[in-house]
Amino acid sequence: HVQLVESGGGSVESGGSLTLSCAASGMTWCKAWFRQAPGKEREGVASIELDGRTSYANSVKGRFSISKDNAMNTLYLQMNSLEPVNTGMYYCAASVWKGASLQREQYIYWGQGTQVTVS
After folding, report:
1. CA neighbor of 110 nearest in space, from 35, 4, 33
2. Maximum Cα–Cα distance for the chain, whole Å?
3. Span 38-87, pLDDT tens digits
4. Less packed terminus of the chain by CB within 10 Å, N or C?
């Protein structure tokens, strides 16, 4: 069983930066960050495979960076040049399948989420 606990959310002005963290227990093939804005579906933001390969939603390429600390089993999301459209609840997720990328249905473990508000 994998447990995920996010932290690092908050309120920031447009153009600002935030770093999200996700403490994970257990090993999985792929971890990712998803965002859910009010009234909208949960969508993939960035993912990282066990071998370090990454995937990003087109809307965040060049601004967001996903990384992991294998020793501490921690996942990070560095978010720069934030925009109001980036507002939402950010969830850390883990998949037991290789190549899960940003496919939400491939993820079976989810954290409780951390709120990010950009104004």
Report:
1. 4
2. 38
3. 999 999 999 999 889 999 999 999 999 999 987 768 999 999 999 999 99
4. N
